[in-house]
UniProtKB/TrEMBL annotation:
This is Phospholipid-translocating P-type ATPase. The lineage of its organism: Eukaryota, Viridiplantae, Chlorophyta, core chlorophytes, Trebouxiophyceae. One of its GO terms (molecular function) is ATPase-coupled intramembrane lipid transporter activity. Residues 639-650 have a biased composition (Gly residues). Signal peptide: none annotated. It comes from Chlorella sorokiniana. It is found in: Membrane.
């Protein structure tokens, strides 16, 4: 078959400097040579790439289907190929102009297709294996030990392990001269702690290894030299391999495209993993100068024939490329083709260059337009083959990935400071005791001759300094119990259990479709899940599923359809039946006009006449119908048109039987939809049983619109080189497409100029309202403009993506004059895009406003409910995306992040403008004053300083929990702001008081920079004007409080995930990069709610109490030993032996607190933590602060230690049969009293008792008595006589004094704590106390209001209730009201608010939960308390006082309790 010839206009390309051309291996022709002769006789050299070849000639001997001679193609694929080549030419021009000149010493690499030649080159490249794990067998020990000993606690125990200058406890304990204990316990404790931590670290890293293995063992297809294809894992991909990639597969490495199976020599890729954008990008194979690697276009097949793949492997191609770098947008390289087949091609044969042995050779440039980067996905292209250029760590996506940071949990940071303070206290106590010992020896010891203290031996040193120093070491070992090493064992175990059992196997976080469980990859951060203050979320694949569906339309200012209608779920309905389902009015109008006499003319004309199309509405009165010439349209069946006839009594309205005008406008609307698009038609991969073909294209919006049009009878049926065929309700019509002006972000719209069968030329335009509304004719009736704006607002409030439709008719002469200028601009290389945009804007002016489309970008299940719940939990949510701003704001509205889209502050500046910084500064000041004004108006206060004089200072003075504004920022503006410290600070101040922030068009680095910006701001605000140590401590406290969380699903989110305190990866469709670099992984965004509100809350609650209790029990024990020193001359004598001291921590007190930290919970029903999101707010939490730690963990231990020592000491009796006056008896009594005290403490603070916890708590205390009896016998059994134990327990347990003393100790210690806890519950109740009381009385999941049940059902916390069942059942017992019980619901069609029982209804019909009421300012809910027992009768308050809370401050009341909180839509409800 003879190749078709293509004659296209030449580009006007400026000359390129010869040195730049030679850098790319090209040799330019003299200017005069390029002007001489025709295109057919022109001599092609490599230099023509810069001028002619780069503009339009496709190469490889495959000639595209030519558009009409001399015209720009209107076929989408041909146009894509043209654009790809134009982009290549533009890059070359930039390089020629010196904008990207290569450095003289630039490093390069040479890649050969011939593997033998590649191996002979001798250069080794990176493996394609990618590793995100932290350890391997060799590096584990040094890295692990470094991580462990970077913590103060582990360093503390390390600095006690060897004899030497810094002797350690484990080593010192073996020095019997100074040690009061044996060395076995200390050494074993340190080793055990490190072993447990090591097991946990290994377990977590094994998970990372599994994720790496899953990615590295993914299968790709390598082309062998004989043309066969082998499936290999990604790890076996090497530089120089030729790889075949099919549709919907990821590229395993950075490839240079050699062949595309798609017509017109291009391919489409999805780059969501790189930049977050969902639209498809165009790439093209390298220009092979006519060498054909595949069949003719009409013979293409998938999979390809082996002979064509063998031709690829026989290609003698050598690529010289720049060395690996991070640039995602630029690539510099040249491909040298030396092949005999060049002599048979018109381009290669005329090159005039020969290589070795006279083989023709040509060199062509390679840019990013020929590169396919790892992580991107091939779409709608069949398959491609590509040459591997970069692998593994040298791929662009990996070079842009930051190194996995070492993240430390906030409690670890908290413990670092507290342990340092405790160690300082220990140092002071040891120094005090050492000096006191020396003074006692000098003053009192000498009086006791039997001590022989005047004889200086080991342990009694003559040198005062030596005596003090060595005695100091004795007390250092004795008081080492002040820092509980058992805490760190328990912490590791508890965190491991929380992460790898509770989180990993939470059924509520298991995806029902993929069956994926949640994954904890870094359990060190469990407590931080309960302290999140900011969430930075990606959009595509994280909030949305990227599935577009048409929901509503508006025609001439009237909305049709319903946002609840799911037309795609009724695929059996097509044509008029589907249109009837969508909206009856549209059906009647379409059916009526289809039967009318004007139907054929209406279709062949491409739409209505100019005057009908210009009419401002689709329901004209009779006079208007007559003037428009449509009143007399008769149905072809002979039935009247149905228009109103004379006579007042029998007159019928036009809309009752279908508006004739609406029918005409409907044809205008759907014709625009079907013509103004860039879709291609492909066979349905699922088979013809459903649909014979499907639409594919770069815009999912276009696919949704054209799919919906097809279902409703308006079908885009065929596309040829220059025409489009439609099927309009059964009648086929073909339009000649004359020009296509593609959508760009600057233009904001797409336009198509087409000629209808009757010769009418129309401009069809579709785009954003901001752009298209500016193009409608100036005399458009104000009524139509207002109605359309109302439609846009109505759709936007529902979170729908809107596009405005406009059409106009143009004359033939006007078009011909414009088209001539358009073709000249398209042939120009200088400012081509600017010229085309200007001409497009010119022809688009004066559009007739037709209507609006409303598309739903389908959110993931439960996203709006999840974001609402997070906002109610006082978490600030940001949405950061690479998508366009209009789309981002629409999605923010859909997911309830933005409440008032019309009031969003939009920060957009031109980053290329010289006044960009000044413009951004002015806008930020304006917005800051606006926020200050909102706060003053709402709260009725006046800020000082004034917002006019100092807007930043005024907004900073606003309380942090006030967040009412909403902000949108685009990427270019963010570039300007982030580049200036003052602007960055202003943006942070503004954003901190916004309830929702939307960032669009952002790059991966900007996502990370935003997280850093807000972290830095919060630190600055916490420090304030403090200086020195006070400033450091304020910043330290802030670092422990609100945490930053990032969540995303793509590789473009990795930097943001790693920068944030907590990174959450979504296990979506865009690869595993986000998951592999995250701390936690979940399958859907809504699972973030249980992860934070349940697991985060519980982890924080349990670990905080574990820390305080662990210090409390150890400090109590240590102070018992310390108090005894006042009565033994500060000699360092211990009251108990080392074994008993060891079992105190390891056996008797370890299991209760371990089970407490794993099982305890503030409420029995954990779903209540989701129902009452306000419980999450930790800003006013007293759970674990420095003050509460020293009060509960230290001071309480000091007091209880005093009780457990002094009462036994002063109660020792010398009378009676059993004498317990010796030191060892005192030690046993104090030990039992101490053990009972600390056991009662953990029992007192426990809120959720299980039989296991109860049994082990009782056993941990009861077992001390058999221990006291059996342990001495065991010592005797092994032949060891221990005077501290033998016979002592028998006397102690037989003494009545012992039982009385320990009873008194328990009464005092437990009584003190019980009284304190009672006072807290009665007068200072926490939210969890109140809920616990309500749970015991009524349960927490009963009487769910309608909005609460809906929210919880969306989150999967409860079952969705059918309309026939009640929402007011007892969910904890699985019960619901019987069908005969009717809940108090508002009437369907209006009616006044009512109250039934305990449930009040607002004017919107929302019911209120009886357990949590929000009062409007000024309302009163009286305390009803009898005898100190609080009742719940006050819930039956006047319903007029109850209201749904906004995000403003309000009082949340639970009967007799009041606490100040920032209100929310679901305040504890």
């Amino acid at each position: 078959m003879a190749p078709r010839q293509l004659t296209l206009p030449r580009l006007q390309v400026p000359e390129v400097p010869s040195e730049v051309a030679m850098a790319f291996g090209v040799d330019q022709e003299p200017p005069e040579a390029s002007e001489a002769g025709s295109a057919a006789s022109r001599r092609y050299s490599p230099g023509t790439i810069i001028r002619d070849a780069t503009s339009w000639i496709t190469g490889r001997g495959r000639t595209p289907r030519a558009p009409p001679k001399g015209r720009v193609s209107v076929n989408p694929i041909v146009r894509a190929a043209t654009d790809a080549k134009m982009h290549t030419a533009q890059e070359l021009q930039e390089q020629a102009a010196g904008k990207e000149a290569a450095q003289a010493d630039e490093r390069t690499r040479v890649v050969y297709i011939d593997q033998a030649q590649q191996r002979e080159s001798g250069r080794a490249f990176e493996s394609n294996r990618v590793v995100t794990s932290k350890y391997n067998i060799i590096t584990f020990l040094p890295i692990f030990l470094f991580e462990m000993f970077s913590r103060v606690a582990y360093l503390y125990f390390l600095l006690q392990a060897r004899r030497g200058t810094f002797c350690l406890q484990a080593g010192l304990s073996w020095w019997s001269v100074i040690s009061p204990f044996s060395g076995y316990g200390s050494t074993a404790a340190l080793v055990f702690v490190l072993a447990v931590a090591a097991v946990k670290a290994i377990w977590e890293d094994v998970k990372r290894h599994h994720e790496d293995k899953r990615m590295n063992t993914s299968i790709t297809h390598r082309v062998n030299p004989d043309g066969s294809v082998s499936d290999i894992p990604w790890t076996e991909v090497e530089v120089g391999n030729v790889i075949m990639v099919h549709d919907d597969e990821l590229f395993p490495a950075d490839l240079m495209c050699l062949y595309s199976n798609l017509a017109e020599n291009v391919c489409f890729i999805k780059t969501t993993n790189l930049d977050g954008e969902t639209n498809l990008k165009i790439r093209k194979p390298v220009d092979l100068k006519g060498i054909q690697l595949g069949p003719e276009e009409h013979e293409k097949e998938t999979p390809p024939d082996a002979k064509y793949l063998q031709q690829t492997m026989e290609l003698q191609l050598t690529l010289t490329a720049e060395d690996a770098n991070k640039n995602l947008h630029k690539f510099r390289g040249k491909a040298q083709i030396s092949d005999q087949r060049l002599a048979d091609t018109p381009q290669g044969g005329s090159s005039g260059q020969n290589g070795a042995a006279g083989v023709p050779m040509v060199e062509v440039p390679v840019t990013m337009n020929e590169m396919l980067l790892r992580g991107c996905m091939l779409k709608n292209s069949g398959f491609i083959t590509g040459l591997v250029v970069y692998t593994g760590k040298e791929t662009r996506i990996q070079m842009n990935a930051a190194k996995t940071p070492l993240k430390v949990g906030s409690f670890d940071r908290f413990l670092n400071l507290q342990i340092a303070l405790v160690i300082a206290m220990q140092l002071a106590m040891c120094l005090f005791c050492a000096i006191a010992n020396y003074i006692w020896i000098q003053k009192e010891g000498s009086k006791h001759y039997y001590l022989a203290l005047n004889v200086y031996v080991e342990g009694n040193w003559e040198n005062p300094l030596a005596q003090i120093c060595l005695t100091f070491l004795t007390f250092w070992i004795l008081l080492s119990y002040l820092v509980p090493i058992s805490l760190f064992v328990t912490l590791e175990i508890v965190k491991f259990w929380q992460g790898f059992v509770f989180i990993n196997f939470d059924r509520d976080m298991r995806d029902p479709k993929t069956r994926e469980w949640a994954r904890c990859r870094n359990s060190n951060l469990n407590e931080d899940l309960g302290k999140i203050e900011y969430i930075f979320s990606d959009k595509t694949g994280t909030l949305t599923s990227n599935e577009m569906q048409l929901r509503q339309i508006a025609v001439k200012g009237v909305a049709y359809g319903s946002s609840e209608m799911r037309l795609e779920e009724h695929s059996e309905r097509t044509g008029l039946a589907a249109l009837r389902l969508f909206d009856q009015r549209l059906y009647k109008a379409a059916a009526k006009v289809q039967r009318s006499s004007s139907w054929s003319g209406l279709i062949t004309a491409g739409g209505s006449r100019r005057d009908v199309m210009a009419h401002p509405n689709s329901y004209p009165n009779l006079d208007s119908q007559g003037s428009l010439g449509i009143a007399d349209e008769a149905e072809q069946s002979g039935v009247g048109s149905g228009l109103a006839s004379g006579g007042s009594g029998g007159q019928r309205n036009d809309w009752e039987e279908g508006s004739t005008a609406l029918g005409h406008h409907l044809i205008d609307f759907w014709t625009n939809i079907c013509l103004c698009q860039s879709l291609i038609i492909e066979k349905n991969p699922e088979g013809p049983d459903t649909l014979p073909f499907v639409y594919q294209g770069p815009s999912p919006d276009e696919i949704a619109l054209v799919d919906a049009a097809r279902q409703m009878g308006f079908e885009f049926k065929q596309r040829t080189q220059s025409s489009i065929t439609l099927n309009m309700l059964g009648q086929e019509v073909t339009y000649e497409v004359l020009n296509v002006m593609e959508y760009t972000s600057d233009r904001g719209c797409m336009s198509v100029i087409a000629r209808s069968p009757d010769g009418t030329i129309r401009v069809f335009c579709k785009g954003s309202d901001a752009k298209v509304m500016m193009k409608v004719r100036e005399d458009t009736p104000e009524e139509l403009v207002e109605n359309t704006n109302a439609n846009l607002h109505f759709f936007a409030k529902q979170g729908l993506r809107t596009l405005v439709i406009g059409t106009k008719i143009i004359g033939d002469e006007e078009y011909q004059e414009w088209d001539q200028r358009y073709q000249e601009a398209a042939s120009s290389f200088v400012d081509r895009d600017e010229k085309l945009d200007a001409l497009g804007k010119e022809i688009e002016q004066g559009l007739e406003l037709i209507g609006v489309t409303a598309i739903e970008d389908k959110l993931q299940d439960g996203v709006p409910a999840a974001i609402q719940t997070l906002l109610d939990a006082s978490i600030r949510v940001w949405m950061i995306t690479g998508d366009k701003q209009e789309t981002a704001i629409n999605i923010a509205v859909s997911c309830a992040l933005v409440k008032n889209p019309d009031e969003v502050m939009v920060l957009n500046v031109d980053d290329k403008s010289e006044t960009a910084k000044a413009d951004a500064d002015a806008m930020l000041d304006k917005f800051l004053r606006q926020v200050a004004g909102m706060y003053q108006a709402e709260m009725g206060v006046k800020l000082q300083p004034s917002a006019e004089a100092a807007p930043v200072a005024a907004v900073v003075s606003i309380p942090a929990d006030w967040q009412q504004a909403e902000l949108a920022v685009d990427g270019p503006s963010l570039t300007v702001v982030l580049g200036d410290d003052d602007l960055r600070h202003k943006l942070a101040v503004l954003a901190a008081h916004c309830s929702g922030v939307v960032v669009s068009r952002s790059s991966p680095s900007q996502k990370a920079a935003i997280v850093k910006m807000m972290t830095k701001y919060e630190m600055w605000k916490a420090a304030g004007t403090r200086r020195g140590l006070s400033r450091w401590y304020a910043r330290h406290k802030r670092r422990l409080q609100g945490k930053m969380l990032s969540i995303g699903d793509g590789a473009n989110d990795v930097a943001m995930l790693q920068t944030a305190d907590v990174g959450i990866g979504i296990m979506g469709k865009e690869g595993r990069q986000a998951v592999n670099n995250s701390d936690y992984a979940i399958a859907q965004f809504r699972y973030l709610v249980p992860l934070l509100l349940v697991h985060g809350n519980l982890s924080y609650y349990r670990l905080a109490r574990l820390i305080k209790y662990s210090f409390y029990k150890n400090i109590t024990f240590a102070f018992v030993l310390f108090y005894y020193q006042f009565y033994n001359g500060f000699s360092g004598q211990a009251l108990v032996d080392s074994i008993t001291a060891a079992v105190f921590n390891v056996v008797f007190t370890s299991l209760p607190i371990l089970l407490f930290s794993i099982l305890d919970r503030p409420v029995k029903n954990l779903r209540a933590l989701i129902r009452y999101p306000k419980l999450y707010d930790k800003r006013n939490s007293r759970s674990l602060t420095t003050m509460s730690f020293w009060k509960t963990g230290v001071l309480l231990g000091v007091v209880h230690g005093a009780v457990c020592f002094f009462i036994p000491y002063y109660s020792l009796a010398t009378s009676g049969k059993h004498n317990v006056t010796d030191i060892y008896s005192l030690g046993k009594i104090a030990f039992v009293a101490l053990l009972g005290t600390v056991t009662l403490e953990v029992a007192l603070v426990a809120r959720y008792w299980t039989w296991l916890f109860g049994v082990l708590t009782v056993l941990s205390y009861v077992l001390v008595y058999p221990y006291l009896v059996i342990f001495p016998l065991a010592e005797l059994g092994v032949g060891f006589y221990d005077p501290t134990n033998i016979g002592v327990s028998d006397e102690v347990l037989a003494s009545a004094t012992f039982w009385l003393v320990i009873l008194v100790c328990y009464i005092i210690t437990f009584g003190m704590r019980f009284a304190e806890r009672t006072a807290d519950w009665a007068f200072r109740p926490q939210d969890s106390f109140i809920l616990s009381e309500k749970e015991r009385k009524d349960g927490l999941m009963q009487d769910l209001s309608a909005p609460t049940r809906k929210r919880l059902a969306a989150l999967g916390a409860v079952r969705a209730r059918s309309s026939s069942r009640s929402a007011f059942g007892d969910l904890e017992r699985g019960e619901e009201l019987s069908s005969g019980e009717v809940p108090p619901l508002r009437a369907q069609f209006g009616g006044s608010p009512q109250v039934s029982g305990e449930v009040a209804l607002d004017e919107g019909g929302d019911t209120f939960d009886s357990g949590a009421l929000e009062l409007t300012p000024g309302s009163q809910l009286q305390q009803r308390s009898v005898g100190g027992v609080r009742g719940w009768e006050g819930l039956a308050a006047d319903p007029r006082q109850l209201s749904v809370g906004s995000r403003s401050g309000s009082a949340v009341r639970f009967v007799s309790h009041v606490r100040s909180e920032s209100g929310s839509q679901y305040p504890l409800h």
